[in-house]
Amino acid sequence: MDERTGARSGAAAIPASQRGHGTRDLWVLLAVTFLAFVNYAALLAVVPLWASEIGGHGGAGSVAVGATTGVMMAATVLTQLSMPRLFRILPLRAMIMLGAAMLGLPAPLYAVTDAIAPILVITAIRGIGFALVVVAGSTLLADVAGAGRLASASSYYGAAAALPNLAALAGGVWVARTWSFDVVFVTAGAAGVLAAIVAAPLPKRIRGTFHLASTAQLRTIASPVGLFLLTSGAFGAVTTFLPVAGPAAGTTAVALFGASAALIVARLGAGAVGDRLGTGRVLAPAAGLVALGAVTLAVALSLDGPPSSMLLVLGATLLGGGFGAAQNDSFVITVERLGAGRGGTGATIWNIAYDGGLGLGAMGLGLVVGHLGYAHAFIVLGAVIALCALPALVSRSRSPLTPG
Q1: Main localisation, per the record (predicted)?
Q2: Which helix (DSSP H) or strand (DSSP E) does residue 348 occupy?
């Protein structure tokens, strides 16, 4: 999701004969992204729920449930660490098509096993596919977006990735509990396969490039990337454990819907702010919003009755909105500070923080839940993020804001 204004992403430039197809290619990329994330979002909360209920004897423990998200994100991050080599081997379109197929084809296999080990293997395969889709797609974005519109194009890309959450994230849990897990697995698999087919018209020969950043450059992005990783961890923890800890399927579905809707609105809003006012304005406040959402969820899980349900929805909505705003601003900061020619590098680092955060958040909260319970675990999560966001908030208030 390269958001550098006026700079190339690091992918090879599109030949002059193909430049007229930029708008078409952007729409194709958005459609592919939407379908791939239908697969991803539908299973993000359903696979942990499946792991918690399989076998008819209480299912997996909290650590194993968290591992279903953690393993996928670990496979995703390990693949992303291999992107410098993969960029030399495969064009970006081939990566996207292969990745989408790896997301879709294994998904129905969840239905044929009730053991945690095969579930983790299937999830790891999907994690590899997910990495190919998100890094290749975000690297290709700068070549199919119009000049001077990369921040906005990135927000559209982010919206395409987040829109499936509105129906698939919350709806997947509802369908699994109301109808059947099998319906979710098959539907998600079909979406992934369709994404691979829809990707066929994308430019054929564009490859990503990866240039190492200097130590000084990496230091300039350490704080924003680290803060974004924490917000991603919070979202991974919520999507993994809220379906398990929530008071009722209907309330949980509404809470996840609220988180998804807020994520999209905040992501688009951050893109508009980035185009008009410059970057770096919303990351720290967004992280504070995530912390507030986590604490609100903790209060909700410690109460009973209608107040609990209302606070659960409010907390998830606050957290999702903060995460959405943090996504756009952190990516802009990362790519701009690394500079021209390192768009592939920036996309890879940012996606590692995104996906690594999701996995670490799920596994980390799983460990804390085992010792403290759900409510106290969410309080710890919110406190950690708030403590890390506070120095950034103070720093921004003491220094003039400059674009980029």
Answers
A1: membrane
A2: helix 343-372
